[in-house]
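Quick illustration, no need to memorize.
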Amino acid sequence: MDLQSKNVLLVGWGCENEKDTFMYQIYYLMFKRIFPKLLTFDSKKKYFQSGKDAMNKQLLDYVKDKELDLIIFAMDEEEFYPETILKITELHPNTRSLFIISDDDTRFDHYSRYFALLFDHTITSSGDFTPDYKKDGIKKVDYHIAYNTHKLEPLNVKKEYDVTFIGRPKANRQKIIKYLLDNGIKIKLFGWDWYQYPEFKEIYQGPLGQEEYVKIINQTKINLTLTRSGYSEQKQIFNLKFSIFEKALCKSFQLVESNPKIINLFKPTKEIILFNSKEELLKKIKYYLKHKELREKIAKRTYEKVITKYNSEKDMRKIILKILDRTKEKITSPKIKKNLMLIKKEDLRDIQALNFKLKNTDYVYFSENPQDSIYKNNFQAYSLDKTHKEISCCDYYVYSRSLGDYLRLRTNFAFKRIGKEANKLINIAQLMIKKDYFLKNIGLIKKLFNNKDVELIDEKNTAFVSMPLTRINNVKIISYEDMTKSFDMKFITTLFSLGYQKRLFKTSYVYKLFLKSLSYPFIIKYIIKSIFNKHNWDKLNLNKKYVENSPLKKLTKNV
C-alpha cells in the first residue's frame, strides 16, 4: 500500500507548535514523514484563539468538503465534544479515525476507555492496557512506543555535568533530588515547576527547548530517569518514560528507576542500569562517575538496542498499514442495554409509589437538563455495565449565560487529590446509580437534592467518566487550595482567547467575571496568582511565536 499518496489529517493538541516537544516533535514530524501530504488542525491553538465551541465548529467546517483516508486525533483531554467526533463519522462514513492516547497508566479507567468508543482504532502507549480495551469490546487497539526522534543524536560535546534530571517535580522526585544534594552529588535540574521549591534554587536551570534538551543530555555524564508518575496527592505508579529512548538515541548514559515495564524491554546491567532506592542510586552514581569507559560501553548497547528493535516510526508504519487494511465499521455512541428511569425530587416523597415506579428499572438518573450532552446517559450506563460499580459520576461545567462554561470539575482528580472532601462538590445531575443501591441510600439522595453535604461517593463504589456531560449553575465553595486542585479554571482560557483576539477589554467578559468573583472570591485570587506565577511567564516566553498577546500582561496593567 502506498502511504505517500494518502490524504491524512492530524488533529493534535499543539501539533503545529515547534516548541511542543511531545505533540509536534514526536507525532507531527513522524506522521509528516509517513504522509508527505499531511494536513493539520492544531486544536490547542484554535481553542485558545476562539474557545471550545468555536473550535469544534471550525473542525467540522474544515473537514466538511475534504476527501480523507484517515483522521488522527491526538487529544489533550476534553477539547472535543462527543457530538463533534460522531458528526465527522457521519460526514465521512468511509474515512477511518484513529485515537492516540498517552498515559493510559493514569487515564484508562476514567477517560480513554470512553473516548475510544468514538473512533475506529485506538493506539495506546501502555501495552498493559491492551487487554483491558479488548475486555471492554474495543478490539481494534494497538500498542506503540512513541518517543521523539527529531535531532536526537550523539553530539561531540564536552561532558559539563555530573548528573542532570529533566522533568517535573512529580511523585517521589523532590525527595530523591534532596537526598542526592544532601549527600554531595552535583546535580542540575531542568524542566517546569521546580522554581516553587526554594531548596532547589541553586541547581534549577529552567525549562528547555528541543535543541537545548538534546545538548544537555549529551553534556551529562549520568542522566537520571525517574519513572514514577502522579502528583503527591495521587496514587503513584510506574510509567514507561519516552525519555529513556531519547537519551539512548543520544548514546548517553542513564540511571533508571526500576519498574517491570523497563525490565521487559532492556537487559538489566548490560543494556540499562536500574536502581530501586535513593540509597542504591547514590551508590551507583558514585560508582559510575568513576568509570567513564563502562558508562560509554553501556550507553552504546542501549543505543544499538533502540535503533534496531524499538524504531518508533517503523512500528507506526506497520500499525497504519494494518488500520487502513481493516474493514471499516460503523461508529456510534454506546448502546443503552439497561432500563433507565429519571428521578425527580418530588418522586422521593412517596417511597411506596417510587418502588412501584422502579419495578422494571435497572439504573436511575437525576438530570434532564437541555444543556446535558445528548449522549450523557449512553456513557454513564456504559460505565456501570463495564465497571460493575454502583455509581457513575461524570464531570460537569459550571455555566452562566454571561460567562458560558467558566469552570470544570475534574471529578476523578478531585477525589484523588482531596479525598472525601470532594463529595462537597458533587451535584445530583452528575450521577447515575444502580436501582438497588439508590434505594438503600435514598436518605443521602434526598440530602443531595437539597444541596447538603453527603459522603456518597468514593473511588471504590464509583465509576468516574472524565467527560463534562452536564452543566450546573452554582457550585459550593471549599478552601482555595482544594478548589484549585479540583477545578479546571476555564475562565483563564477564555481570557487568553480574548487577549489573542485583542478583544479582552472590548467585551464585557472581564467585568462580568469580576462580578461573579464577588460570589466566588477564589476567581479573582486565582487570576492574581496566575499573573505572578513564574511558571506561566516561562511558558509564554518559550512559545512567543505560537502564543501571542498574553491576556496576563494586559491584566497586570489593570489589577
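The chain has 24 helices and 20 strands.
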